[in-house]
Amino acid sequence: MPVKFYPSKPIDLLEKFIVHDDGTPLYGEIEVYRKLFTDLDQSSVDWHIWHDLKLPKHSDIFNEYHKTSAQLDFLILCKYGVLILEVKGGYVSLKENTFYYGKNFEKKMSQDPFRQVEGYKYTLKDKILNNLSTCFFWHAVVLPHVDYPFESRIFDENLLWSKFKSSDYNNSFENFIESVFTYSKEQHRRYHRTYPNLGQSEMDSVRKILSPILHDSSKYDSINTLEWLQVNNLEILE
Fold first, then answer.
1. What gap in Å lies between CA 102 and CA 95, rounded to an integer?
2. Exposed, middle or buried by CB within 10 Å (0-12, 13-18, 19+), for 151?
3. Which residues contact 91 (CB under 8 A, 6 or more apart)?
4. Taking the model in full, what pTM does it have?
5. Which residues are within 8 A (CB) of 9 and not within 5 positions of it... i.e. 6 or more apart?
């Protein structure tokens, strides 16, 4: 399949799997999960997506909220690099450089989503995948239910997906993701920093780090060789 999720969840039962601590559905992340599945399923590009990825560390430098760990809503791996998405469901408003839930500043957010996801990017780059020097890391914010203009000079609108802005990308998440990579790499290119596409071996390295296979690889060493081969006579074995 062009798109693979880690872990994979039944697409028709997401309301039972993606929930708040009290068991109520996280509709923002559910909508993004389904749209990623739908929009990327027929893509010519291979996509690997981690949902609700918890990291045991946080960047020491880009950590203004003093977190000891990180929780990524979505991490997307493809040939263009690694992209982290921070999702804020429901209506969102902004006043005096502070983000709020609701259209009219009903509930203050504990974190600026753009700064939050940027910190996660550096955590991933510096603490988890720090052996991938040529991999391009970037970030974006998703406001799936914001159906009104949400514009400001304090954040980069090229890194924002909202219901209102979706028409700019023909309502395609694939177009948005590719646009983010193209735009961001071009920003770096202006300062003579270039990032090639990832090869298969590099993508495999990322997958093995983020979704390791752990088991007792020495279990066969503890078994008597003759017993394992079902050979009763050493001379026959020789």
1. 12
2. exposed
3. 101, 102, 103, 145, 146
4. 0.87
5. 17, 18, 33, 51
27-40 and 173-189 helices, crossing angle to 10°: 90
How many Å is the Cα radius of gyration of the chain?
22
d(CA 92, CA 83): 22
Instruction: Please give the Cα distance from 77 to 96 (Å, whole number).
Output: 35
**Cα–Cα distance between 32 and 141 in angstroms, integer?**
11
| Residue 38, both tokens | 């739908």
For residue 6, the cross-strand partners are: 50
Question: Do the bridges between strand 98-101 and strand 160-162 make them parallel or antiparallel, or are there none, so unpaired?
Answer: unpaired
pLDDT tens, per residue, the chain with 238 residues: 589 999 999 999 999 999 999 999 999 999 999 999 999 998 999 999 999 999 988 888 778 777 888 899 999 999 999 999 999 999 999 999 999 999 999 999 999 999 999 999 999 998 899 888 889 999 999 999 999 999 888 899 999 999 999 999 999 999 999 999 999 999 999 999 999 999 999 999 999 999 988 877 666 555 555 555 555 555 555 5
Q: Please enumerate in sequence order all residues whose Cβ is within 8 A of that of 143, keeping only pairs 6 or more positions apart, or say none.
A: 87, 88, 92, 150, 160, 161, 162, 163
